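Hi P.,

Sorry for the delay on this. The queue was packed all week, but I finally got your sequence through. Input first:
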Amino acid sequence: MKRCSSPDHPHCTVWVAPGEAQCAHGHRQPSGAVDVLGSSFEMLKRVRAEGPARIPATIHAPPPRPHLHVSGFDPRAAGGRQAIKLELRGMPDDAPAQLTLLLESKLLPMGAGRLWLRPGEVDPEHEGVKALEAAVQEVTGEPAVVREFNGGWVDAAELMRPNARGFGEPAAITFGPGDFEQAHAVDEHIEISEVAKAAEIYARAARALLV
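Then the structure:
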């Protein structure tokens, strides 16, 4: 796998499989794009060439089956919005265009190929937020910073509905260790010390809410 190499979209972070002409966003890949798995494939070819000669059994590729292909968009490459892209793939080449159009209209909600996921906002005065703020202060000795989370999406947001004040309920609070700028990036990692601190923060916040 390699990252999107489109020169017109340098901030696209979608993974592209070897040999694919475009990424999930539809960005065409340059012909000279570097394939980070190229050396591995070449090594595999050499190993097979050095081994005993074998007559492979005839393999018949299964015919393509119509299916709904689901792919995701990294919010950093989609204007800060998380999206899901739906495509009807695998239709036979001789399938009438009207049939393909009919299937797409039935499978894709309102004919939309992209679905924007529900946003949500939690009341900054919510008891869960306050419990985490206090726990962060106790464990790290520094004040917690409560801010908008525009870099991703969580499933719990689908459960949230605006209350009388406009905040989502039940509250879905995003909190955890690590540097979000390293998420879905090369050498993505979290320091063990941060994981330990996060565990202590979770424990203190949960205890404060339960007592």
